[in-house]
Design brief:
- The chain is an all-alpha fold and about 240 residues long.
- It has one domain (about 1-205).
- Helices cover about 70% and strands about 0% of the residues.
- The protein has a two-stranded antiparallel sheet.
Protein backbone atom coordinates (compact mmCIF):
# COMPACT_ATOMS: atom_id res chain seq x y z
CA UNK A 1 0.00 0.00 0.00
CA UNK A 2 2.75 2.49 0.90
CA UNK A 3 4.65 1.70 -2.28
CA UNK A 4 1.52 2.44 -4.30
CA UNK A 5 1.20 5.84 -2.64
CA UNK A 6 4.90 6.43 -3.19
CA UNK A 7 4.50 5.92 -6.92
CA UNK A 8 1.35 8.05 -6.95
CA UNK A 9 3.20 10.90 -5.22
CA UNK A 10 5.96 10.76 -7.83
CA UNK A 11 3.32 11.04 -10.55
CA UNK A 12 1.69 13.95 -8.67
CA UNK A 13 5.03 15.76 -8.36
CA UNK A 14 5.72 15.37 -12.09
CA UNK A 15 2.19 16.52 -12.90
CA UNK A 16 2.69 19.59 -10.72
CA UNK A 17 5.89 20.48 -12.55
CA UNK A 18 4.21 20.05 -15.94
CA UNK A 19 1.29 22.21 -14.81
CA UNK A 20 3.63 24.95 -13.56
CA UNK A 21 5.57 24.97 -16.84
CA UNK A 22 2.32 25.08 -18.80
CA UNK A 23 1.03 27.93 -16.66
CA UNK A 24 4.27 29.87 -17.20
CA UNK A 25 3.87 29.52 -20.97
CA UNK A 26 0.29 30.74 -20.69
CA UNK A 27 1.29 33.74 -18.54
CA UNK A 28 4.34 35.01 -20.42
CA UNK A 29 2.45 37.19 -22.90
CA UNK A 30 0.17 38.98 -20.44
CA UNK A 31 2.45 41.90 -19.52
CA UNK A 32 5.98 43.10 -18.74
CA UNK A 33 5.79 41.82 -15.17
CA UNK A 34 4.19 38.52 -16.17
CA UNK A 35 6.88 36.24 -14.77
CA UNK A 36 7.22 38.19 -11.51
CA UNK A 37 3.45 38.23 -11.18
CA UNK A 38 3.30 34.53 -11.92
CA UNK A 39 5.55 33.61 -9.01
CA UNK A 40 3.59 35.97 -6.76
CA UNK A 41 0.39 33.93 -6.96
CA UNK A 42 -0.40 31.94 -3.83
CA UNK A 43 -1.41 28.99 -6.01
CA UNK A 44 2.00 28.87 -7.69
CA UNK A 45 3.94 29.15 -4.44
CA UNK A 46 1.79 26.54 -2.71
CA UNK A 47 2.17 24.18 -5.68
CA UNK A 48 5.95 24.55 -5.61
CA UNK A 49 5.81 23.61 -1.93
CA UNK A 50 3.49 20.71 -2.73
CA UNK A 51 5.87 19.32 -5.36
CA UNK A 52 8.66 19.24 -2.79
CA UNK A 53 6.39 17.56 -0.24
CA UNK A 54 5.22 15.01 -2.83
CA UNK A 55 8.84 14.09 -3.59
CA UNK A 56 9.82 13.68 0.06
CA UNK A 57 6.57 11.80 0.72
CA UNK A 58 7.25 9.45 -2.16
CA UNK A 59 10.82 8.70 -1.04
CA UNK A 60 9.66 8.13 2.52
CA UNK A 61 6.79 5.85 1.44
CA UNK A 62 9.10 3.76 -0.74
CA UNK A 63 11.89 3.41 1.84
CA UNK A 64 10.27 3.53 5.29
CA UNK A 65 7.30 1.78 6.91
CA UNK A 66 5.95 4.94 8.51
CA UNK A 67 5.88 8.71 7.95
CA UNK A 68 7.46 11.03 10.48
CA UNK A 69 5.44 13.71 12.25
CA UNK A 70 7.45 16.39 10.45
CA UNK A 71 6.50 14.93 7.08
CA UNK A 72 2.86 14.60 8.13
CA UNK A 73 2.86 18.24 9.16
CA UNK A 74 4.27 19.24 5.79
CA UNK A 75 1.68 17.10 4.03
CA UNK A 76 -1.27 18.60 5.88
CA UNK A 77 0.01 22.13 5.28
CA UNK A 78 0.57 21.54 1.55
CA UNK A 79 -2.85 19.90 1.25
CA UNK A 80 -4.48 22.84 3.03
CA UNK A 81 -2.81 25.45 0.84
CA UNK A 82 -3.73 23.60 -2.34
CA UNK A 83 -7.32 23.16 -1.19
CA UNK A 84 -7.70 26.85 -0.37
CA UNK A 85 -6.25 27.79 -3.77
CA UNK A 86 -8.76 25.54 -5.47
CA UNK A 87 -11.68 26.94 -3.48
CA UNK A 88 -10.69 30.55 -4.20
CA UNK A 89 -10.27 29.84 -7.92
CA UNK A 90 -13.63 28.07 -8.04
CA UNK A 91 -15.24 31.06 -6.30
CA UNK A 92 -13.71 33.40 -8.91
CA UNK A 93 -15.07 31.25 -11.73
CA UNK A 94 -18.54 31.18 -10.18
CA UNK A 95 -18.54 34.92 -9.52
CA UNK A 96 -17.42 35.66 -13.07
CA UNK A 97 -20.16 33.45 -14.50
CA UNK A 98 -22.83 35.10 -12.33
CA UNK A 99 -21.72 38.55 -13.52
CA UNK A 100 -21.63 37.49 -17.15
CA UNK A 101 -17.84 37.55 -17.33
CA UNK A 102 -16.75 33.96 -17.98
CA UNK A 103 -13.24 33.11 -16.84
CA UNK A 104 -11.38 30.70 -19.09
CA UNK A 105 -9.17 28.18 -17.31
CA UNK A 106 -6.47 26.49 -19.42
CA UNK A 107 -5.50 22.90 -18.81
CA UNK A 108 -2.59 23.97 -16.61
CA UNK A 109 -4.90 25.97 -14.32
CA UNK A 110 -7.28 23.05 -14.10
CA UNK A 111 -4.43 20.80 -12.98
CA UNK A 112 -3.16 23.35 -10.45
CA UNK A 113 -6.52 24.32 -8.98
CA UNK A 114 -8.63 21.18 -9.23
CA UNK A 115 -6.90 17.92 -10.18
CA UNK A 116 -3.87 18.09 -7.89
CA UNK A 117 -5.76 19.46 -4.85
CA UNK A 118 -8.25 16.60 -5.20
CA UNK A 119 -5.38 14.11 -5.35
CA UNK A 120 -3.77 15.69 -2.26
CA UNK A 121 -7.05 15.29 -0.35
CA UNK A 122 -7.41 11.67 -1.44
CA UNK A 123 -3.80 11.01 -0.46
CA UNK A 124 -4.47 12.44 2.98
CA UNK A 125 -7.73 10.53 3.45
CA UNK A 126 -6.49 7.16 2.22
CA UNK A 127 -2.72 6.96 2.80
CA UNK A 128 -1.78 5.07 5.98
CA UNK A 129 0.38 6.43 8.76
CA UNK A 130 -0.70 10.04 9.18
CA UNK A 131 -1.15 11.83 12.49
CA UNK A 132 -0.56 15.51 13.24
CA UNK A 133 -0.50 17.43 16.56
CA UNK A 134 -3.03 20.22 17.10
CA UNK A 135 -0.20 22.76 17.40
CA UNK A 136 0.02 22.62 13.61
CA UNK A 137 -3.04 24.87 13.30
CA UNK A 138 -1.34 28.17 14.29
CA UNK A 139 1.74 27.21 12.25
CA UNK A 140 -0.46 26.84 9.17
CA UNK A 141 -1.03 30.61 9.20
CA UNK A 142 2.67 31.55 9.01
CA UNK A 143 3.07 31.07 5.26
CA UNK A 144 -0.23 32.80 4.28
CA UNK A 145 0.63 35.71 6.59
CA UNK A 146 4.07 36.09 5.02
CA UNK A 147 2.51 35.88 1.55
CA UNK A 148 -0.05 38.62 2.36
CA UNK A 149 2.70 40.93 3.67
CA UNK A 150 4.82 40.28 0.57
CA UNK A 151 1.83 40.86 -1.72
CA UNK A 152 0.86 44.16 -0.11
CA UNK A 153 4.44 45.49 -0.10
CA UNK A 154 5.08 44.45 -3.71
CA UNK A 155 1.66 45.62 -4.87
CA UNK A 156 2.26 49.11 -3.54
CA UNK A 157 5.16 49.46 -5.98
CA UNK A 158 4.05 47.28 -8.89
CA UNK A 159 0.37 48.35 -8.73
CA UNK A 160 -0.67 44.75 -9.15
CA UNK A 161 -2.44 42.39 -6.79
CA UNK A 162 -3.18 38.73 -7.55
CA UNK A 163 -6.65 38.80 -5.97
CA UNK A 164 -9.23 41.58 -5.83
CA UNK A 165 -9.76 41.36 -2.06
CA UNK A 166 -6.17 42.55 -1.50
CA UNK A 167 -6.34 45.48 -3.91
CA UNK A 168 -6.77 48.79 -2.01
CA UNK A 169 -8.48 50.24 -5.08
CA UNK A 170 -11.23 47.62 -4.87
CA UNK A 171 -11.70 47.15 -1.12
CA UNK A 172 -11.94 49.55 1.77
CA UNK A 173 -8.99 49.68 4.16
CA UNK A 174 -8.86 48.66 6.92
CA UNK A 175 -12.40 47.37 7.54
CA UNK A 176 -13.25 45.48 4.36
CA UNK A 177 -9.71 44.20 3.93
CA UNK A 178 -9.65 43.14 7.57
CA UNK A 179 -12.92 41.24 7.08
CA UNK A 180 -11.48 39.33 4.14
CA UNK A 181 -8.36 38.49 6.14
CA UNK A 182 -10.47 37.18 9.03
CA UNK A 183 -12.36 34.96 6.60
CA UNK A 184 -9.07 33.70 5.15
CA UNK A 185 -7.75 32.87 8.63
CA UNK A 186 -10.97 31.00 9.41
CA UNK A 187 -10.77 29.01 6.17
CA UNK A 188 -7.14 27.98 6.69
CA UNK A 189 -7.69 27.08 10.34
CA UNK A 190 -10.89 25.19 9.60
CA UNK A 191 -9.39 23.07 6.83
CA UNK A 192 -6.29 22.20 8.88
CA UNK A 193 -8.46 21.30 11.88
CA UNK A 194 -10.66 19.09 9.69
CA UNK A 195 -7.68 17.26 8.19
CA UNK A 196 -6.13 16.73 11.63
CA UNK A 197 -9.43 15.39 12.96
CA UNK A 198 -9.63 12.94 10.07
CA UNK A 199 -6.08 11.74 10.69
CA UNK A 200 -6.67 11.22 14.40
CA UNK A 201 -9.85 9.21 13.96
CA UNK A 202 -7.78 6.40 12.41
CA UNK A 203 -5.22 6.13 15.22
CA UNK A 204 -5.35 4.80 18.74
CA UNK A 205 -4.34 7.30 21.50
CA UNK A 206 -1.91 4.71 22.84
CA UNK A 207 0.05 4.89 19.61
CA UNK A 208 0.22 8.65 19.22
CA UNK A 209 3.67 9.68 18.07
CA UNK A 210 5.77 12.20 19.94
CA UNK A 211 5.68 15.49 17.96
CA UNK A 212 8.87 16.18 16.05
CA UNK A 213 10.46 12.79 16.72
CA UNK A 214 8.45 10.41 14.60
CA UNK A 215 8.18 7.97 17.52
CA UNK A 216 5.17 6.37 19.09
CA UNK A 217 4.03 7.48 22.51
CA UNK A 218 2.61 4.71 24.68
CA UNK A 219 4.71 1.69 23.73
CA UNK A 220 7.66 2.56 26.04
CA UNK A 221 5.20 2.86 28.93
CA UNK A 222 3.71 -0.54 28.15
CA UNK A 223 7.17 -2.13 28.01
CA UNK A 224 8.12 -0.57 31.33
CA UNK A 225 4.88 -1.80 32.92
CA UNK A 226 5.48 -5.30 31.62
CA UNK A 227 9.07 -5.24 32.93
CA UNK A 228 7.91 -4.10 36.38
CA UNK A 229 5.26 -6.82 36.44
CA UNK A 230 7.84 -9.53 35.71
CA UNK A 231 10.14 -8.11 38.41
CA UNK A 232 7.38 -8.16 41.02
CA UNK A 233 6.39 -11.70 40.08
CA UNK A 234 9.99 -12.89 40.47
CA UNK A 235 10.41 -11.17 43.85
CA UNK A 236 7.09 -12.25 45.41
CA UNK A 237 6.97 -15.59 47.32
CA UNK A 238 5.10 -18.42 45.71
CA UNK A 239 1.46 -18.78 46.73
CA UNK A 240 0.58 -21.85 48.84
CA UNK A 241 -1.28 -24.49 46.94
Amino acid sequence: MRRAFGVARIVAACTGLVALVGEINFTIGTGPFAIANFFSYFTVQSMMLAVIVFVFGAVNALRRPEDTVLLDRARVLATTYMTVSGLVFAAILVEGSLRGVPVWAPWSSQLLHFVLPVYALLDWFLAPGRIVPWTTIPWSLAFPAAWVIYTMVRGAGAYWYPYFFLDPALVQIPFELGLYLVVIVAIFSGIVALLITISRRHHSPARERVPGRGKVRGWPTLRQASRRRRTLQAASPPHPR
